[in-house]
Structure formats: C-alpha cells, structure tokens
Amino acid sequence: MSDQTQPDATREYFDTVADQWDEMRRTFFGDGVQQAVIRAANIGSSSVVADIGTGTGFLAEAALATGARVIGIDSSEGMLGQVRSRFPSDRFEARAGDVEALPLGGSEADAGPCKHGAPSRRAPAACDPRDGACS
C-alpha cells in the first residue's frame, strides 16, 4: 500500500466506525488512560490543548474537565461529526487535519497529547503543536 493510499484507507476506516468507536475504544484502552495523559502533559485550567486524533473526544473529555480549552483535530469527518455533537461548548473546537500538517497557528496550543497514531506509524506520546507536526 502506498503512503498516499494508507491515510485514505485509515480515514475511510474511521469514517465507517465513528458511531461505534466509543465501545470499540474500550477494548483497546481503559478510562485510566485519560488521567494518565492529563497528568503527563500537565494539562490544567489555563491550558489550550490540541487533541490530535481526537476521534470521539476521549482525551478531550478529560482535558475539558480540567477547565482547559480544547482544539480537537482529526482527519475523519465521521469522527469530527461525533465529537462536535458530544461537545457543543465554546471551550471545544473541532478541526479537520492530521499529524503531518496540524491546522494550528504557531503558538495556538501549548499541549498536544496523542493517545495513538495511525497504524502505519509509531504512536507518539505527545506532540508539540507549536511546530505543526507530531514526531
């Protein structure tokens, strides 16, 4: 599979499973991951968080609970539809994008947790949203 085809296949997969993702996610990792990531990324009420690969908002939920502002980024329109309906808050904004080209201004966010990456790449523990990409 070419590099161009893999992102398309991944996006299509997540578009297909978006309405089932919350249940599926429970088989991959438990709710304890939320607080571990929030602690590791030092997210608090003054944080602006870029939730990269936001999906249905698993990490966004925990960040919002701290009082943080969250920018949820995902390449799947199906996932973005789910997360937009879940968090109709002025502290949450959903944006289309991916880890290769984050739709963020240079200093727009100060934390960028990633709970997992696309199947074709290593899963980053965190991203620096200020430089526009995950490593």
What does this entry look like structurally?
- This protein is an alpha/beta fold.
- The chain has one domain: Vaccinia Virus protein VP39 (Rossmann fold, 3-Layer(aba) Sandwich), CATH 3.40.50.
- The chain is built from 5 helices and 3 strands.
- The chain has helices at 5-17, 21-28, 32-40, 58-65, 77-86; strands at residues 48-52, 69-74, 92-96.
- Strands 1-2-3 form a 3-stranded parallel sheet, covered by helices on one side.
- The protein is globular.
- The two termini are 22 Å apart.
- 37% of the residues are buried.
- Residues 117-126 have low confidence and may be disordered.
Percent range for β-strand residues: 5-15%
**Overall residue-averaged pLDDT value:** 79
CATH class: Alpha Beta
**What is the ordering of alpha helices and beta strands?**
HHHEHEHE
CATH structural fold name: Rossmann fold
Strand order within the widest beta sheet? 1-2-3
Task: Determine the fraction of residues in helical runs and give it as a percent range.
Answer: 25-40%
Q: What assembly state would you assign to the polypeptide chains in this entry?
A: single chain
CATH architecture term: 3-Layer(aba) Sandwich
N-end to C-end Cα span: 22 Å
Shape: globular
Number of strands: 3
Radius of gyration: 14 Å
Total count of domains: 1
Q: Which residue ranges are poorly predicted, with pLDDT under 50 across at least 5 consecutive positions?
A: 117-126
Q: Please identify the structural class as seen in this structure.
A: alpha/beta
Q: Count the helices. How many?
A: 5
Q: What is the assigned CATH homologous superfamily?
A: Vaccinia Virus protein VP39
Largest sheet: 3 strands, parallel
